[in-house]
Amino acid sequence: MTTLPPGLHLVTIDTQDTVRIEITGDLDYQTVDLLLDEVTSQLDARPGLKDLHLHFAEIGIIDSMGLSVLLMIHRRTAAAGTRLHLDDRPPNLNRLLDITGTLEYLTAAPPTGAATSQQHTEQAPPTAGTAQAARPTGPDSTT
Amino acid sequence: MPGFPWSRAPYPVLVADAGGLVVQRNDAAQALLPAARPGARLADVVPAWLATAHRSMRLPAPRATRESDVPLAGLIAERRYEAHPSVADDGTVAWWLVDDTDHQLVREALRMERERTSFLAKASSILLSSLNLGRCMDVTAQMAAENLADAALAIAPARGRRLPVVTCLRGGTPVTSQESVDPDDVPGLGEALRGFPPVPSRWLDPASAPAWMIPEGFGPVGAIVITPLPGHGVAAGALVLLRKEGSAAFTEEEEVFARLFAARSGAAMSAARLYAEQTEITEVLMRELLPPALHQISGVDFAGSYRPSADHERVGGDFYDVHPAAVEGEPSLVTLGDVCGKGLEAAVLTGKIRNTLHALLPLADDHQRMLSLLNTALLTSHHTRFATLVLASAVRQGSEVQVRLTSAGHPLPLIVRADGTVDVADTRGNLVGVLPDVHARTATVTLAPGESCVLFTDGITEAKGGPLGDSQFGEERLKRALAGCAGMPAEAIVEHVQMLASQWLGGRRHDDMAVVAISAPRTHHLSAVDGHTRGRYTA
Fold first, then answer.
1. Could you tell me if A108 lies within 8 Å of chain B, comparing CB atoms?
2. What SS3 class is residue B335?
3. What ipTM score was computed for the predicted complex, to two decimals?
4. How far is CA A47 from the centre of its chain?
5. Any idea what DSSP says for residue B140?
6. pLDDT tens for each residue of B377-418
């Protein structure tokens, strides 16, 4: 636990083509918007950003809303062509990513522009038909 | 009158001696009290209150002292006067009469205004302390009956064909009724209940008032006024004020005041109505989400327990279902899951998942395919709300039960063996609803008689409590607890786990907690198939 009051505290350190955000405190349904807003404004301010590092050494509790916001951040970075790094993960975060089968997905290299748009068409309002068509083209496999 | 210094004074001055005879008066007094000539007996020519005041002066006295309870003010010729005595050494008293009629009127108006302000403040605080529509209507009718009229009716807009009405007589208690009437039959009521366009209060001819509007035992009606209760953009209802025949009619001022009161109670009633509607929506959704009662199906025991979060905003995340096989001898499908997020949005997503899974039942033999289709059905670009779940297909084979288990990003099912060993099911998979594509690995487990497979949500393992109140119940503690459950029937395991988690919480806040156990019955099974009844074991 940190000595900070409950809540989320962010420190953003940016260099030429890298942004690093240090996260201190709980990432839960009360605080997730803070992180998403910070990431969104960094991505908006720096088109062509190569790497976004989220630094988790000081994180407290992370719940399912916390994971949901990481998935949303990944969606935004992938669209911007930025690679997402989840650094200094404590055991509780690793466990969450492991059980939910999201570690590989969140930390994979960003797709190229073409792949990005293809990914988006796959996420377009689906029908059973497109779902079956889309499935074999999936890029990764966890099995 | 020579020598009388006050003959031209603007105030009436009347001088009387100790014997009660008028001695002198000035011009103003002559105009006010023409009969009070010098030499007349005071008691015969002035109002009684002034004569009494004169007698009460203690004589002789150098200074005026008097019996304190005798008023020094009263009516003369329909105006109100204050009498100020000045006592001479010989006992004669000069009474100065000061007209304070206007002063009195202003004071009265101020008192009324203060009373009304405090009444409105009281009305606001009572009304706003309740979010119950019925209570708001009761308070409105009762306060109006006590302060504005002889009786009052608070009427809410019709629900269907019935008009909710609360009637209150002055000094009585509010009575609720439902009137099967058309508000448009009463002039002004229909408009007031529609609320738009805003209508002023409306006088109603007492003769044309319908019978339901007149409270029982009220007697002849003198005046009726209908005032709309304005809500937040919609009409909250109408207030009907009734006065008895013979009591004062409503003044314009009173009507304005009634509208001030109506504005407050209207706001409270519409807030209460909105709250009631919101609660109803949540309740309807939650009712839909309530897990089914489980029982034995085709020789496999199922038990489930769901403890929703006491926090309204945290409820709605967990679900479980058991779908019996369409064909006897095929596996039944158990689903247990947890939707990310809480409250109404989570409840909606939960409903969507349960419905989709139900529709996919024909594919239940292929968990991977089922999850893949579910994932695609849930994908949306609007949010990254996800769900984690476990699919379990259980079928009786001889005395054993075979279970195929697939976790989609969910805490892994635990297997309680007959010897007290607790295994973790070897299954893995991605959560559903966010990733473009999901994969999962299915584990197959065989349960010998008395063995169980336990599915649970993280509300159990993440229950925060313990001796210091800050540690999670955790999977290790859950495994140890389950080791002690070897051989227990499914229902007992589920109850035991919920009990331990509750003890661990010790009354603290918690998320939804769901547990499902699938067991191979330990003892001989009496009814061959589908035994729904209790007491299905031999002793």
1. no
2. strand
3. 0.72
4. 17
5. H
6. 999 888 899 999 999 999 999 999 999 999 999 999 999 999
The token pair that represents B415 in the structure block: 């297997």
Domain B112-284: CATH class, spelled out: alpha beta
Please enumerate in sequence order all residues whose Cβ is within 8 A of that of B90, keeping only pairs 6 or more positions apart, or say none.
Answer: B17, B18, B60
Same CATH topology for B13-99 and B112-284: the answer is yes
DSSP designation for A133: H
| CB-count burial class (<10 Å; 0-12, 13-18, 19+) for B439 | buried
The number of angstroms, rounded, from the C-alpha of A5 to the middle of its chain's C-alpha atoms is: 25
Instruction: Write down the CATH number for the domain with range B13-99.
Output: 3.30.450
Q: How many CA atoms lie within 13 A of B215 on its CB side?
A: 27
CA-based nearest distance B357→chain A, Å: 13
Q: Which residues in A lie closer than 8 A to residue B375 (C-beta atoms)?
A: 131
List, for chain B, all residue ranges whose pLDDT scores fall below the cut of 70.
1-3, 58-71, 196-201, 233, 282, 285-290, 310-316, 523-539
Q: Does domain B290-519 have CATH number 3.60.40.10?
A: yes
Chain A residues with CB inside 8 Å of B428's CB? 101, 142-143
**CB-CB: which of B380, B384, B388 is closest to A71?**
B384
Q: Helix, strand or coil for residue B237? A: strand
B463: tokens are: 């229950």
DSSP tag of B350: H
The mean pLDDT value for A106-133 works out to 49
Set out the domains of chain A in order of their start, with CATH numbers.
Answer: 8-108 (3.30.750.24)
Residue of B nearest to A101 (CA): B430
As beta bridge partners, residue B124 has none
The minimal CB distance from A134 to the residues B338, B376, B458 is found for: B376
Query: Which residues, including other chains, have CB under 8 Å from residue B69's CB and lie 6 or more apart?
Result: none
The answer to whether B441 faces chain A, any CB pair under 8 Å, is yes
- Position B62 scores a pLDDT of 47
Q: Domain segments of chain B: what residues?
A: 13-99, 112-284, 290-519
A66 to chain B, minimum CA–CA distance in Å?
Answer: 9
Written in H, E and C, the secondary structure of B447-482 is ECCCCEEEEECHHHHCCEECCCCCEECHHHHHHHHH
In the beta sheet, which residues pair with residue B167?
B153, B175
Structural contact between residues A19 and A4, judged by C-beta atoms closer than 8 angstroms: no
B231: CB partners within 8 A, 6+ apart: B195, B237, B266, B267, B269, B270, B273
